[in-house]
Here is the input.
Amino acid sequence: GQNIDQPTEMTATEGAIVQINCTYQTSGFNGLFWYQQHAGEAPTFLSYNVLDGLEEKGRFSSFLSRSKGYSYLLLKELQMKDSASYLCVLPMDSSYKLIFGSGTRLLVRP
Amino acid sequence: DVKVTQSSRYLVKRTGEKVFLECVQDMDHENMFWYRQDPGLGLRLIYFSYDVKMKEKGDIPEGYSVSREKKERFSLILESASTNQTSMYLCASSSPDGASGNTIYFGEGSWLTVV
Here is the structure.
């Protein structure tokens, strides 16, 4: 089976750096996604990791360690608009279905 | 630009009514999905389709059916709406992509209230 764990809530200050962790168990690894979801809106794609290491994309970076079943999303130079939920997502063994973590709600304070 | 469009953003329906939620994608994606999202429960898969006229049950198909007559369109049907189907419904689509895996793109969501 597959299982995803991430913290429920985090708070950080505008301009700071925050790391959102995700640990997972899966029988077959097919990559890991991070999505951002603002309240009342649909999730939007942030990153996809399939190999170990850090992928950087502007202010956002995502890290993966397959041997540890661990990923994190790093947000730098936090802005108020980064207040949102961040979802760690695993594709299932088939090509069709995704397993969503419950999400980490990030609150950015001035 | 990637586009998944859901026909209705906000709906209020009465118990027992038949409800149609329509979704159209313009990316020629093979896979389409319907999820519902509820506080504390995250996103739960209702049905998905990997080709025209093909469908498979997700985790919570009870009380729902789907239709995919054309590749770009995937409809969710509530045969007889009930109050426990009040939720936000998200349509999504995806296609295998070597660089980005099966990146899934979501519509804006449909907020359904059943009274």
Summary: The interface with chain A takes residues 31, 33, 40-43, 45, 48, 50, 56, 58, 88, 90, 94, 96, 100-109 of chain B (CB under 8 Å).
